[in-house]
């Protein structure tokens, strides 16, 4: 004996009904398989190679095409993959690394600020001071004095400007 299942042909119910299983001749419209790689952007070995290159050449003029050549990629594709991997463009990442090294040198050394500027890849102290002030919130001199008096590990906010005495 056959059992029949009643079907409702109303348009509203048809829109909600699940799609029938695809035939063997039609490709299934399944979601794309999960990514094969757990990383995003550059592969770990390429990223490590580029970051090492940046670290070694921090004081030099580093161009994106040179970094791309290091991992055998076009500059355009390299830039997109680098940003996916690090969250920053190569130029922004390089600047952030320079600022971190400059902060370390300002606190831990007696080098003049002009020498620190050259050591982290800036030709002039003026350019370095402008970039540093945008990133750190204070000029290199104020940063150095403040960090040495409160200590490098303190979490107190850095003084932005000196208040005039009344």
Describe what this molecule looks like in 3D.
It is built from 8 helices and no strands. Mean pLDDT is 80; it is low at 25-32 and 158-166. Helices cover 52% and strands 0% of the residues. The protein has helices at residues 11-16, 44-56, 64-70, 75-86, 90-108, 113-119, 125-136, 140-150. The radius of gyration is 28 Å and the shape is elongated. Among the domains are: 44-87; 94-150, Orthogonal Bundle (Arc Repressor Mutant, subunit A). The chain is mainly α and 166 residues long.
Return the string of H and E elements.
HHHHHHHH
User: Separation of termini?
Assistant: 103 Å
Largest sheet, in brief, is:
none
| Radius of gyration, in angstroms, nearest whole number | 28 Å
The CATH superfamily of the domain at 94-150 is Homeodomain-like
Tell the overall outline. elongated
Kindly state the mean pLDDT as a whole number? 80
User: Unreliable stretches, pLDDT < 50, 5 or more residues?
Assistant: 25-32, 158-166
CATH topology of the domain at 94-150: Arc Repressor Mutant, subunit A
Q: Which architecture name of the domain at 94-150 does CATH use? A: Orthogonal Bundle
**Secondary structure tally: strands:** 0
Helix content: 40-55%
Which structural class fits the helix and strand makeup?
mainly alpha
- Please give the oligomerization state of what you see: single chain
SS field, number of helical segments: 8
CATH class of the domain at 94-150: Mainly Alpha
């Amino acid at each position: 004996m056959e059992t029949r299942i009643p079907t409702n042909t109303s348009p509203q119910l048809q829109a909600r009904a699940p799609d029938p299983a695809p035939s063997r001749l039609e490709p299934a419209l399944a979601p794309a398989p999960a990514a094969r790689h757990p990383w995003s952007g550059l592969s770990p070995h390429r990223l490590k190679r580029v970051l090492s290159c940046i670290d070694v050449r921090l004081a030099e003029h580093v161009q994106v095409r040179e970094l791309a050549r290091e991992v055998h990629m076009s500059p355009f594709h390299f830039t997109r993959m680098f940003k996916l991997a690090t969250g920053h463009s190569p130029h922004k990442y390089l600047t952030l690394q320079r600022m971190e090294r400059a902060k370390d040198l300002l606190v831990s050394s007696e080098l003049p600020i002009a020498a620190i500027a050259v050591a982290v890849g800036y030709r002039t102290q003026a350019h370095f001071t402008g970039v540093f002030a945008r990133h750190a919130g204070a000029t290199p001199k104020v940063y150095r004095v403040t960090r040495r008096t409160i200590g490098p590990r303190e979490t107190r906010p850095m003084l932005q400007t000196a208040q005039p005495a009344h």
